[in-house]
Design goal:
By secondary structure, this protein is α+β, with helices and mostly antiparallel strands. The protein has 14 helices and 19 strands. The chain binds flavin-adenine dinucleotide.
Length: 471
Amino acid sequence: MAPKHKAAKKSAGKPSALAQALDALRPAYTGRILTSDHTDYETTRTVFLGDVDRRPAVILRPAGTADVARGIALARDTGLPLAIRSGGHSGAGHSTTDGGIVLDLRDMKALDIDVSNRTAWAETGLTAAEVTGALSEHGLAIGFGDTGTVGIGGITLGGGVGFLVRKHGLTIDNLLAAEVVPADGSILHVDAANHPDLFWALRGGGGNFGVVTRFQYRLHELPSIVGGFLFLPATPETVARIMAAAAAAPEELSTIANVMSAPPMPFLPEELHGSIILMAMMVYAGDAEAGEKALAPFRALGTPLADMLRPMAYAEMFPPEEGEYRPLAVSHTMFIEKVDGDDAATMLKFLNESDAPLRAVQLRALGGAYARVPADATAYAHRDARIMVNVAAFYEGPADRPAKAAWVKDLAAALHQGDDRAYVNFINDEGAARTRAAYPPAHWERLAAIKAEYDPDNLFRLNQNVPPEKL
Ligand SMILES: Cc1cc2nc3c(=O)[nH]c(=O)nc-3n(C[C@H](O)[C@H](O)[C@H](O)COP(=O)(O)OP(=O)(O)OC[C@H]3O[C@@H](n4cnc5c(N)ncnc54)[C@H](O)[C@@H]3O)c2cc1C
């Protein structure tokens, strides 16, 4: 299908053509332009995943929305592939490209908090931890995911499931507006009244429709939480019971239970390192007394190996991360209805048999505010799903990858309960059918029609791609 693509017909990739186009770009462009001879090129081209190693022809680091529009024009004019990068955590490696253009938003970090109206405009170079930390100073919060270094660009556009999901829904359920630069380079204010179809598509449809330069979020008062980590022995009973307790808990409480090989954390006895444990990441978004009450049944599931649940500021859920962490990992995402003793025993069997340096089944309890949003209200549709699962294994090099990928596939198949849907932000580079699995047919058709309006030539195609209708 590539020849049908208008941009692909041009003389893509000729260095001289790019050099000329960059010369034409420079006078108006206020951000940074990095080619391979630049001292910051090597560090800037790096993304989170350890097995993604690509060399873009040019990395543009725009200083603002006008620069973003100029970068999009450069891609249109040269025909080079265009990757959009916010926090660089794409599991599919979509935020970089060999020989193409990367529009890297990391220098766009303006954050304008309106404390009295409890809203904020945030530029998309910000990370989840940066926004959360700044909001925390005002006792305000919005939920992103479980990892502070993830960019707000990617996580918001896919949905955003994290520590406040049961109390306040997905990140997109708190999205009020966005500034978007679609393929034609115009600058759009998008909200429920302006470009409502595009506003719908942005809430779960990923990076298909243009570059979002900033989001406006609704914020919630959250002066403190009770939360942190609870480590328990992993038995079929504790694993099944924690998910039952998480579903039955007040919706202030969101739980992510990881059945996993114990990392060498200093507060875990050394003899446990590498053995299979249950690590719950929990947030009670409310006052301390009610939080302690809600957490009591979890502490009673077994004698905790370590109990690190405590009253804290929400921002403490994202501790500063040191050094460069670029894992080699394979994973599979899916939804399941329930975890009973047999399901839990299956997980433990596989986890105990694997020799992966780190292996995990991550179970996220959904429900609450997440489930009250009608399935057709946003491009993200899986509102009736009860538990989001990620099966993951780290591997040690290319030779080790197939065995770990097979393990992930087999365990995911053993846990499958008939639901083939998937959360778009956790899908890796898995082919078109898996992208389709992120959307029901009617959602897919609507997304394809909206794509045709805002990106008819599929300029934004390095993503979980929804091709424009009729392309
Ligand atoms: C360690 C880790 C933990 C995670 N935990 C969670 C979690 O708890 N909850 C959750 O929901 N997800 C989670 N994710 C998944 C995460 O939400 C996605 O990988 C997301 O796409 C990453 O966003 P990013 O901006 O960092 O990535 P990037 O790689 O920069 O961007 C990913 C894609 O998003 C699009 N995009 C990004 N910014 C823009 C923009 N401004 N305009 C247009 N398109 C854009 C582009 O298509 C881009 O290819 C996690 C991922 C990792 C690696």
